Every structure is written in C-alpha cells, then in structure tokens.
C-alpha cells in the first residue's frame, strides 16, 4: 500500500524459501564492511577462547552491538558446526527468529533454510544435514528436547535475549543446567543486553550441578591469552578460572551515545494522541533523525500510523515540495515480513521514518537511524492470578529497566533524546525490573512439558526464578481436570502423553483430542489452526468498518470459533482464491498459514493413531468438543449492569466464571471484537481474556454453550450447572 507512495518496491510475501540465493558482489562487500564495524567483532578471539574453555559463557552487550547476528556466525566460521552437529540460537520472539535468520542468511550469502535457517512453532525452515545455524524460538527448542533430551543435534546453544526472562527462556535455562552435567562437549552461550549476569552464571555453575567433573579432554587450546579485565570467571572455592565447569562472563563495550531523557509536566490522557502530537512538534523543529514510538499492541500502532498519515498530508502542504517528509510505519509481531523490513531499513532520502512499534523494538529487532524515542511507558503482558485461575493480557506500566533499554534505542548513531509520556514522579514509582514471565504466567503448559520430559517433582526443579507455589498447584489441578494427569499427578496414558505431543496449549490440545469422541476432528483442527495465527482479517487502520461488514457475513450465533470455521469453509469453497479473500477483507497470507498449521495438526492426530473425521454440519458437536477443552473458562450471564460512562457496554454484559473465582471479584464481559458482543448468550466458554484499563476482563474468541453440557462433558468439575462445585473461599 505504502510502497507506491514512497517509491519502494515490496517483495511479495515471504514464503520461507524465497530469499535470494545469489547476492551481488557489491552488496556482499557492503554487508561485510558493516559487520566488521560492529563492537562484538572486536571480541571474536575472546569469545572463541572462552567457548573452548567454559561450558557456559555469559555475553553481555548493548542492543545492536552484534550479539544475535554476529556471534553465531563467528562460531560457524570457527568450525563449531563441523562434525554433523549444528548451532542453535534461541529467541523469545518468533518475529525475531525469522528476521534475524533472514539477515544472517543474507550476510552468509546463502538461501534461507539451507546453511542458515529458522524454526518456530508450526514452521521449520531448515534442512536436516545441511543447516548449520538455526535460529529458533526457545519454545521450539524445548519441543525438540522431547525427542532429543540432551540436544545431541547441537554443539552450541546460544540462549539469546536472556534479559527478557521469557517463560520458555527460564525453563530452557533450568533444563540446560541438567543437560551440561551430562554433555561436557556442549557449549552454552547466554547473551543478554542487560542481565544480572552473575546471577545466571551462578545458576549455571556446573560445580553446583555436579560436584566433581573432569575437564573436557577434547577441548583444544584456545587462540591465546586474553585481557583479564574483560573476563570474569566466577571464582569458586578452587578458584580455577579456566575450569570448564566455571561459567565465564564477557562484557562487550557498546558504543552508545548519550541520550537525554525528557518527561511530561502533566500526565497525558491518551498516549497515542500525545505521541503523535509530540512527533509533529519534533518534526517541525527540524532536527534530523528517525523517530521510534513505543506503544503496546497492533491496534495502537495502527491508530498512531493512521493519525500520523493525516498529519503527514498536512505537513506536506505546509512544508512545500522539498521539505523533509514523514514516513509513518507500524512494527508489530503479526506484520507481514515485507512491511516489517520497511520499518527496519533506512528511510529513503528526504524522508523521516516514524515507526510506531510494540515491545519488539525494545531489544529483539534493531532499527537503523533512530535519534528520538517516544515512550508511552506501557507494555501488554501476560498476567496470571492463581486465585481466579485467569491469565489475562494486561496493558501495564513498564519497569525502569525496560524504559532504559527503550531510551538506548535513540543513541545508536549520534546523541539522542527520549521523551517519556509520563511525569518524572510517576516514572520514579515504576518498578525497577520486569517480573520474569515465569512468575506471572499460567503454568499448565510448562508443567505438562516438564512431566513429558520425565521431571515429576516440580518443587525440586531448579528454577532461575521459582514460580509461585499457588500457580503450580493450579496448573496441576487444571491438567488433572483435563485428564492429562492421573490421581498421582503423573502423566496419564495415553491422554497426557498425547496432549504433550501436540504443539498446542493444554486446553486446545484437550479439545482436539476430544474431537474424536464427537466426530469433528477436522473442524477442531481448523479452529485450533485459526486460533494459532494472528488475525485472519486484513490489517490496516481505516478499514474497520469494511472488516466488520465482512465479518458479519460469516458470523453465527454459536460464536467466534464457529465463525472462523465458516470463514475457512467459504475460503476452501472459493478454491483458496486470493481475490475472494481480498474481497472479504481476509488476509490470504494468514489463511495459507492456517492451512499449513491445520495440515500439521491433522498429521499429528494421524501419527497418534486417530483418523480425524468431519461432522459435516453438526455444529453442536463442534461446540461440545470446544467445551471439552475450555470448560474451566465457562462463564454465565449475570444480572443487568448499567454503566452510563461506557455507553457501548451498557445493558446486560456481565459474566461470571461458572466454577467460581476463589472468592475474588472478577468482572467479565464479551469483548467488542466478538460476534456475540450484542447477542450475549446465557452461557459461554472463552479462549482468551484481556484486561482493559477499566478493570473489566474482556473475553475473546467466545463460544455459546448449553448449560447441561458442562456436567455431561466435565462431570468431575460440574455436578450441576445451577450449583457449581463450591470453591474454597468462594461465595
Ligand atoms: P544485538 O543482538 O547485539 O542487539 P544484532 O546482531 O541484532 O545486535 O544487530 C547488529 C547490527 O546489525 C545492528 O546494529 C544493525 O545495524 C544490523 N542489523 C541487524 N539486523 C538487521 C536487519 N534485518 N537489517 C538491517 N540491519 C540489520
Ligand atoms: Mg539481539
């Protein structure tokens, strides 16, 4: 869309293997020049030396210094991938795994998916036996451990962006701690932009894992001695810094320029609007440099871009022909790859890039040329309340550590400015560091995975940050109610093992496995696939009305999940026609991806010995199978609540969890994006919930159910619908 206006050519959608195989010589030498200038390149010898000598090395360096793209290439070039094993570099975010792999393949001059590849859930762009360097999400590496617990396919595992402390990173570190005790030849490289490096190093100190260990005899001697000042090996009782078992810490000097931080004098009412106004002011001042705005999600980014586009038109009329123009671009995880590249690459001459980004731009992706950061100081994150058993996406203030990272994005090429959209006083009250995801997420998936790996005693597992015991108990309860665990809390056979095998969260896995009973495996596979992709509706700010109209054509009284099914069927009937999809405001790219995922899920089912059949138009069967996974999220309509301030929601739209919320007051309502928003059935199950600023929990992807289904489908949880099993402390 934007391509024409700015004279930039869009690639067609990336399909994983279409990266150019041959890159012209000039571009290649340019890339080499850029690579050589990165701070981390100067430390090549030290990094390789430490890797020879230590099982674990912690690498600390500013964002943009070259950790993610350069270090794995150093290892590759030093021969760490020789002898049939390869190098894995994990990323907490899918979008980063894909982008970085694409970039590195380009730097290596190879086709993506050959020597350099990536692997994320449902998408493996690598070639067995050929791929030497694989960027993968930490979650997908965890999955590989189910088949290969000691990760024997790899010689080096680089755990990247460890400072993010994602749930899967923490879990992976806990497991790697066990693996290194049995694989002295394996090397772990932990890289982080800001880490309590010592803490992770101490956590992985092999001497605490296994009291005695012989030094690896195979490790050849390194290229030479190195400056002591650079390397800190945690000194243990025996004080031998070159011991394989002792983790090493290496700090790479960044080359960050000073960033001046500014605050608002008064709090702002709407940070998207304030961010846009601030951008316009900055632009009018005429100071050169791109602008990066941190917001919390796709919707906000698109709204900001739409507002900025209006402003851009106005500024152009005022500024005249030769004036610098603004080029607003969004950047969020679900964005098509080609559009994402626009945000990452340098702006064309005469344009000032203004990127409205989510947290992905904080450390995962590096943007060129940013001099101004406008920070809304908020982030959308998972929060779990073990009392209510609800995990919600919540827009919350960021931590000071996070704000500091964001500010740093402004000082990459020259001194910069960071404008925080809060008062200095409010800022001083923010928490210092972000709570690790492990301590604020639902743990059912984690527990299921650990059980499948044979780790039964969760309490004795070594966690980098132990999750709350209450959350652990809740996870065990949920898995038990889904039939994944037996009464002794062991993985049940075959159901628990099958659930762990499926690349789906436990609830959806349970639905898919139950679908056999209801004769609708085909349909539930479709629904699970549609829930595993980003929105199938066309993205773009100004098109909401058109999307709503298109949505209405497919919507049904059964709810959003069955609506997805209708969309799918209609798309299939059209012969998976791109034109048809466009006419109906659907994204062909996302639909094709859903089709791929659907195929994989069907393959998994067949591998488990189940032949998925279709129930044709028996919708009740589909809804029952959905209920078999989501019954813990069953809610019923409560009495009337009128809210004059929030006209959209006035009337009856207040739900409560059927199973109770442990005495906690939780207000649930149907999210506006749902097809049942106006219908408001008396009972429903939802798939996800978001917590808005008003405090309401907004249910998304809802399905209407019949009350009598609950005791029928989950008799251990619901004896009768009118009298749910009392909860401890419940009302
Ligand atoms: P780190 O992991 O230390 O944050 P990276 O290895 O991701 O750093 O990036 C190093 C440098 O490579 C960046 O400063 C940027 O200039 C460049 N770079 C990385 N990815 C891309 C990309 N997709 N397109 C253009 N330049 C990139
Ligand atoms: Mg990085």
TrEMBL record:
Matching SUPFAM superfamilies: P-loop containing nucleoside triphosphate hydrolases
Coiled coil regions, renumbered to chain: none
Entry keyword Cell division: no
Gene3D superfamilies: 1.20.120.1080, P-loop containing nucleotide triphosphate hydrolases (3.40.50.300)
InterPro entries xref list: DEAD-box_helicase_OB_fold, DNA/RNA_helicase_DEAH_CS, HA2_WH, Helicase-assoc_dom, Helicase_ATP-bd, Helicase_C-like, P-loop_NTPase
Source taxon at top rank: Eukaryota
EC number: 3.6.4.13
Domain Helicase C-terminal: 275-454
Keywords: ATP-binding, Helicase, Hydrolase, Nucleotide-binding
Any one Gene Ontology molecular-function term assigned to this protein's record: RNA binding
Span of domain Helicase ATP-binding: 48-213
Catalytic activity entry: ATP + H2O = ADP + phosphate + H(+)
Entry similarity comment: Belongs to the DEAD box helicase family. DEAH subfamily.
PANTHER family: ATP-DEPENDENT RNA HELICASE (PTHR18934), ATP-DEPENDENT RNA HELICASE DHX35-RELATED (PTHR18934:SF136)
Protein name: RNA helicase
Organism per entry: Apatococcus fuscideae
Lineage: Eukaryota, Viridiplantae, Chlorophyta, core chlorophytes, Trebouxiophyceae
